[in-house]
Structure formats: C-alpha cells, structure tokens
Amino acid sequence: MSASEEVVIEQGATCELARNPIDEVIAGRLSCREFSGSPVSRSTIEQILRVARFAPSGANIQPWHVYVLAGAAKAEVSAALLHAYETEPNEHVSEYQYYASAFPEPYLGRRQTFGRLFYDSLGIAQSDMAARSRQTAKNFAFFGAPVGLIVTIDRRLAMGSWLDLGMFIQNVMLAAVGRGLQSCPQETFAKYHRILRPALSIPAEQMVACGISMGHPKHQARARLMPRADLEAFASFKGFEN
Ligand SMILES: Cc1cc2nc3c(=O)[nH]c(=O)nc-3n(C[C@H](O)[C@H](O)[C@H](O)COP(=O)(O)O)c2cc1C
Asked: In this structure, is residue 238 part of a structural domain?
C-alpha cells in the first residue's frame, strides 16, 4: 500500500474537499449500518427513484428493476433470509461472482484495511467468528432501516449493462443523501435469490444484483470510516500544463 493510500479521510476533511452542493452530496454518502426508527414515506422513495432513473445507460436501455420493501413485507423477507442464513449456511450462493477469487495488490491491502477498520469500529475482534456472523446477520434486517430495496438486472444483458446498473444504484444513494437519508448497498442479498424470487415474484430473467438499506441514520454526524486512495493512486494526467 502506498503512503497516499494510508490517508484516512474523516468526514470533516471530506466535506472540505466538496466545492459545491453536488460534491457535498457525493462526499456525504457513506454506508450506514445503523438507522433510526423514523419512517420514510413511499412518496420520498418514489422521488428518489424518479430522479435516479436519469442515470445514463448504453443505448438508453435502462436495465434496472427495483423492489421496494417496507413494513410487514420487509419484515417477512428479512425473517425468511435470516432463517436461511442461520439454518442453511452453505446453501445460498449468488448467481454472479462479486469478488475475485484472489485479490492482487493493491486490492488485497485495501480489503485488509477495510476488515480492520470495520470490525475495530464495531468492537469485534477479527478472530471472533461468532460476533462477525452476528454482524453479517444484521444485513438481512436491512440494518434496521425502514426501507429495503432489492435491485435486479435482466440476465440476458451483457457485462456493460452492469455499468449502467451501478450508475443507477449510485444515483439512488445520492438522491437519498439529498433528502437527509443514508443507505447501504448490500451484495449479501444476491446470495439469497432462491428465497427472494418467490417472495417478491421476481421473474426468471431477472438476476438479484444487490439490496440497499435506506433510512435516517441513527447518528447524523458520523465520521466517514473508510479511507480512499488519493488521486495519484488512480489518476494519470497527460497534456495539462502544470
Ligand atoms: C455493490 C456493493 C455491495 C456491498 N455489499 C455490502 C454488504 O453486503 N454488506 C455491507 O455491510 N456493506 C456492503 N457494501 C458497502 C461497502 O463495504 C462500502 O461501500 C465500502 O466499505 C466503502 O465505505 P463507504 O460506502 O462508507 O464509503 C457494499 C458496497 C457496494 C458498492
């Protein structure tokens, strides 16, 4: 890991980087895993999805579909997924491979930093597999968020459409920040497509890509936990004067 990658950008510093309201929204989004109990109305979610649909997509095909869950519908899905997680630990796998089987550097180092920061922040020793499992289980309750989204993509499309989907998902999360909400994207849900499909009447051609928890954060001014590599680590400039 290079020295620049060790820089941990705290929330305050991140905001200092923000030069305009859009920057503030981008820098203000973080993965929230503790939500307050306050509800989010259907009309707010509709607004978020209506603006998020302006994400670009190749040939404007708009390959996304979203299942929006709240109340009893969310609770039923959460209970079924938690039950599967606890009773069938090795039987659920995603229909797509999210992570590489082996991480080359610098990704390996970043993933290790993630694990250390994440579990340290929760007071969980990385060797404490039971506590880690309890934390993972919180995914299925959408971390206590009042709204859970399940995002799917048509499996007949190609890899390029996943770029489109990612842009849409980011738009959803940014539109949430613009309304004082936070979110957490969750690939964990993709593993449980066999339960989600019948529960949400997901057609066979749709593949579960991820879930998104969404609601008011429990701690409004929580500092950003996860660092980012600095510009020099990922950008190459040519042809500029100074
Ligand atoms: C597609 C995607 C899937 C993710 N899946 C999970 C997940 O299943 N559970 C979880 O707690 N966080 C998940 N995350 C959140 C990442 O851990 C988080 O984005 C990363 O550590 C950077 O932190 P930040 O979002 O707070 O900036 C996911 C993020 C993305 C983009």
From this structure: no
The pocket around ligand 1, CB under 6 angstroms, is made up of 30-31, 33, 114, 139, 184-188, 210, 226
Is residue 239, in this structure, part of any structural domain at all?
A: no
Nearest-CA residue for atom 9 of ligand 1: 186
Nearest-10 crossing angle of helices 159-177, 42-52:
130
Query: Are the beta carbons of 50 and 59 closer than 8 angstroms?
Result: no
Residue with tokens 């979610």: 45
How many independent structural domains does the chain possess?
1
8 A C-beta contact, residue 210 and residue 169: yes
Q: Look at residue 235 and tell me if it is in a domain.
A: no
Is residue 241 included in any domain, yes or no?
A: no
Pocket mutation for ligand 1, best pick of 30, 31, 173 (most atoms within 8 Å of C-beta): 31
What is the CATH number for 94?
3.40.109.10
Instruction: Give counts: helices (H), strands (E), the chain.
Output: 9, 4
CA–CA distance, 99 with 107 (Å, rounded to integer):
11
Owning domain of residue 174? 3-230
What pLDDT, in 10s, does the model give residues 5-17? 433 444 445 556 7
* pLDDT tens per residue across span 60-81: 999 999 999 999 999 999 999 9
